[in-house]
Amino acid sequence: MSNTCKLLAALALFLVLTGPAYAYIDPSSGSMVLQGIIAGIAAIAVTAKLWWHRLLVLLGIRKRTLKPGAKPEAGKDDKGS
To answer: Under DSSP, is residue 39 helix (H, G, I), strand (E, B) or coil?
Structure first.
């Protein structure tokens, strides 16, 4: 028997033998879960925003920009001198 067949048989057996669950999730638990999901999405969005320019520079789509007031490194300016 292949691993896939064993897995499907175990899943079918598990679904047949499960009993009713007498559980209750109060509204505050649901809102905490929702808040966690929203926080995770916000964290992913902020991380993507912070790394987006670096990714574009790495792929060669954008040129590297200098911070205001920063001096270019010796030998790396655009004039070729």
So the answer is: helix
